[in-house]
Amino acid sequence: MSAHIAFRGVSKRFEVKVRGSRQHTEFTAVDGIDLDVGRGEFVVLVGPSGCGKSTLLDLLGGLTAPSEGEILLDGRPITGPGLDRGTVFQQYALLPWRTAQGNVEFGLEATGVPRRRRAERAREFLDLVGLTGFEDRHPHQLSGGMRQRVAIARSLAYDPQVLLMDEPFAALDAQTRESLQDELLRIWQRTGKTVVFITHSIDEAVHLGQRVVVLTSRPGRVKEVVPIDLGDRTRQDDLRSSTEFARYRHRIWDLLHDEVSRAQLQEKEVVGA
Amino acid sequence: MTALLETPPQAEDRRTSAPSRPQRTLARILDALLTGAGKVVAIAVLLAVWEVAPKLGLVDSTFLPPFSTVLESWWDLALSGKLLDNTWASLVRSLSGFGLAVAAAVPLGLLIGWYKPVATLLSPLLEVFRNTAALALLPVFVLLLGIGETSKIAIVFYACTWPILLNTISAVRTVDPTLLRLARSMDLSGFRLFQKVILPSSVPTVFTGIRLAGALSILVLVAAEMVGAKAGLGYLINASQYNFAIPQMYAGIITLSAIGVLFNQVLVALERRFTSWRVPVGA
Ligand SMILES: Nc1ncnc2c1ncn2[C@@H]1O[C@H](COP(=O)(O)OP(=O)(O)OP(=O)(O)O)[C@@H](O)[C@H]1O
Ligand SMILES: [Mg+2]
């Protein structure tokens, strides 16, 4: 399996102002990340809050540049944003003045798909996420889950190779969340996209990921990569209650537990300082 | 589970299962009638009090003649053509000033909001001008431009510019940052970003400014016409008071408020038309 995405010694440092003075100090968000993601793989990143997960995704999206190292996409270094990667945001980021249809078309407009094809393709992808019949609704007329479906359809419609998802289901209630997880797995299998997915939920990580990457607390490093082997998940109804599932969950919980307490300790130090 | 997957929207959202269409339309019509009736009643009560109070001697009918007297005088004014002439004069002035302000302030505001350096450069100036009441500058305008049409239109233009300009700037500046991130992640060009994200998302805030300006255009103009003019509703009101034609003065005043209400309604309707995506209709 040749690496589709390759992190090579990636570090990201931010300049931060020292309070009460003009000086800047460097703040390391992620440090020395080495990670390969295969084509069509579903990788989940977990780690304590503030460990640099979103930073990694920004780097992958080309929104910021690494301070050290490089990220390769099909062997070529990432130099900026591009339509070969599609991002799904936690806050949906839908254009409120456009209908569901219009929002999906927004992605297509950037790629230069002719107008007639755009409408057709947008409908196709709304159908893929189960929103047929809701094409003419504006975002404020849709539930949170439906909005996120629209956002997913938008990202898929312009056919990126990689889907970047930063806690996309975090704002949803448990039931909606589970149905969207299943939906995402189904879509992933159907489209064969490479997915990099961030979550705070261990259950979600185990349920979705082929591999779960556990990051250390600040600065973020790869602590361990846990391969998850649960077979075809869309075929199993009560996957979440299987003993296998519980074993993986426990494993990741263990790995995270130390890091979370370390992160909390760090935060106290910062507040106390 | 499969059932859940096949019908996710229904399972997720009750809001979408609204009552059937005819029922909803009926409810809406009833609702509109009720609110409409409420407004009519409020105005009718006001007019009734106006009619009765002077007749009962609760107020001096010399200074506040009964509404019917005012109406008669309004009719006379209308027949003589004086009302139309003066209204026309005022409308031309305030609409020109207002229109020019919209045409100038919206593009300028977009520009200032978009280019941070321009905003930083101009913000102290904007701060000063915005806090200088337009009416305080009236003598300056008269001094520079005389008491003719130019100075009237100019002061309306001046007064209307600030709310539109400031609202437009803030509209551009407060575009939802996640939308900007989205655009950036899609590698949208600056022009496309402006056209497809910034412009449409600014519309509601810009319209708020335009509505404020609409109200101001009438207010400022009337004041200007009272100070020095040979025509216009402000002139009519002022001259009537001077000549002690009190019913005629009130006739001028009600014409003015009717125009104000109408103008505002037109702007509100336009605003609704352009921002229907924002407020759920009927909510
Ligand atoms: N532009 C920036 N300038 C300075 N510091 C930043 C910047 N962006 C992120 N950071 C810092 O880098 C660290 C990692 O941030 P990041 O948002 O990647 O964390 P995260 O793992 O996504 O956290 P969470 O799980 O809470 O979303 C944080 O401590 C944050 O304060
Ligand atoms: Mg984050």
Structure report:
The complex is a heterodimer of chains A (273) and B (283). Chain A is an alpha/beta fold and 273 residues long. Chain A has 2 domains: 3-84 and 163-272, 3-Layer(aba) Sandwich (Rossmann fold), CATH 3.40.50; 92-159, no CATH class. Chain A has helices spanning 53-61, 100-109, 115-128, 144-157, 174-191, 202-208, 243-272, and strands spanning 3-17, 24-38, 42-46, 68-73, 76-77, 85-88, 162-166, 194-198, 211-215, 222-227. In chain A, the strands form 2 sheets. Chain A has a 6-stranded mixed β-sheet with strand order 6-7-8-3-9-10, with helices on both faces. The longest helix of chain A has 30 residues, at 243-272. Chain A is globular, with a radius of gyration of 19 Å. Chain B has 283 residues and is mainly alpha-helical. Chain B has 2 domains: 20-63; 65-274, MetI-like (MetI-like fold, Orthogonal Bundle), CATH 1.10.3720. In chain B, 80% of the residues lie in helices and 0% in strands. Chain B is built from 12 helices and no strands. Chain B has helices at 2-6, 8-12, 21-55, 67-80, 82-114, 116-130, 138-145, 149-173, 177-185, 190-227, 233-242, 246-274. Chain B is flat, with a radius of gyration of 25 Å. The model of chain B is unreliable at 1-19 (pLDDT under 50).
- Largest interface summary: A-B, 42 and 31 residues
The rough form of chain B would be described as flat
Order of helices and strands of chain A: EEEHEEEHHHEHEHEEH
Please give the count of helices of chain A.
7
Per CATH, the class of the largest domain in chain A reads Alpha Beta
| Gyration radius of chain A, rounded | 19 Å
Number of strands of chain A: 10
Give a brief description.
The complex is a heterodimer of chains A (273) and B (283). Chain A is α/β, with parallel strands linked by helices and 273 residues long.
